[in-house]
What we know:
Elements lengths: L2 H10 L26 H8 L6 H5 L33 E5 L13 H14 L3 E6 L6 H6 L4 E4 L5 E2 L2 E2 L3 H16 L1 E4 L3 E3 L11 E5 L7 E8 L4 H8 L11 H13 L5 E3 L12 H8 L12 E4 L5 E4 L6 E3 L2 H8 L4 H6 L5 H10 L29 H4 L4 H8 L4 H5 L8 H13 L2
Parallel strand pairs: 1-2, 1-6, 2-3, 8-10
Antiparallel strand pairs: 4-5, 6-9, 7-13, 8-9, 11-12
Helix pairs in contact: 2-8, 6-7, 14-16
Amino acid sequence: MSRLLAALLGALLFWSFDRGLTNCDPAHQHVPQFHNLHPAVQDAQERPPTPLWESNFNGVRFEQYNPAEHVKDDKCSLQPGQSRPQRIPKVVHFIFGLAENFGSSPFNFVHYMAVLSAHQRIRPEAIYMHHIFQPTGYWWEHAKHMVTLVKARDASQLYGHKLQHVAHQADILRLEALYKWGGIYMDIDTLSIVPFDALLHHDFIIGEEGDGEYGLGNSVMAAAPGSKFAERWLSAYAAFRTSEWAEHSIFIPRRLAIEHPDELCVLPPYAFSYPLAWTAEGQQALFTPVANQDISGVLVKTPALNGTMYNALYVGQYALHLAEHGSWKYLADYDYQYVREHQTITRMQLLMEDILKDLPPVPRDPDYDRRYEPIPGLPKPSSWTEQGSKLLTEEELKEQVKAADKQQLEEIRPDDLPERVQQLIKILIERLP
């Protein structure tokens, strides 16, 4: 596949597929042996899973969900003054660079903020950056002193299944690392808000994501080495189906969690992923200017286990997944100057400013004005819409996708594309052998 095609698919479809994780032992070259496929996997394939959130939230629709009214939904966190033996190592795992073009998104300010906030708030013993292609660039130079680079293994095959997309490879690699070494996994576009100390006594931690249409979000997880739930989840990949995009990353773990609740603790959505930054509602909450620019009360105080208070959007919030692939049209403008000096204040600015407040000024990236074009020649990420697709002629679009094989084209999620591009790919699929 040509570089230009890879850029188109990476930018149009999976803007942040470069997230995920690999195993954190450089010498580890083999997939661990796991139990046979659990019956819950077959069950999840045959009928829609029952959403966990119905029991936790008493039937409240996600759009109406108010974290302030549901702080008691958190059954996982220790309260200040409580203590339990720690089972999860206090290390953080990120992944970046599974693809040579970095998923069309070179290491940027958002990724820097993910590393910085983890370093500041979690205060881990180590931050591992798992990669195949080493990060480069302006913001990597500012972040690299905080991380330990670890070479990732090739995860393109598992249980005889070919994992073509780096997103699916990353789904496997993050679970392998948590199973073998334990720790906290975060997508590289996640802000750490509060230390995780109140959660480290569990065997496996994960958060709900979205309403009944979604399941458990694998963008932020934590596990003890040898976690039974991580092992069970990995074994489910014996029945992996490339055609089902989120089946094994979101729906299968939810089904397994329902059947084996003693193997993990599930946090409410506001712990890691509320508001959903890739939805219109979430973007309005995070990126719309605060009314009358009155910032008092926008952030609330939420306690860590040691009693220290941190600024957050909600009480009980630990992190916030920014879903870079869906919110880049807003995030592209963000850097140190934008956060600290921009006159219009948003909730996202306030969260980032709270992390940056004690740092000396960071000069603007000399390539800041090119931030909308991670791959030269592509239209702005903020224009992945019907209107934006018109920036390319029909011939240019054909040229960019003609090298793809039929299976790759059929795996594209149609809802992620402008209608014009959907029609073109449908025609190409029909023409390919």
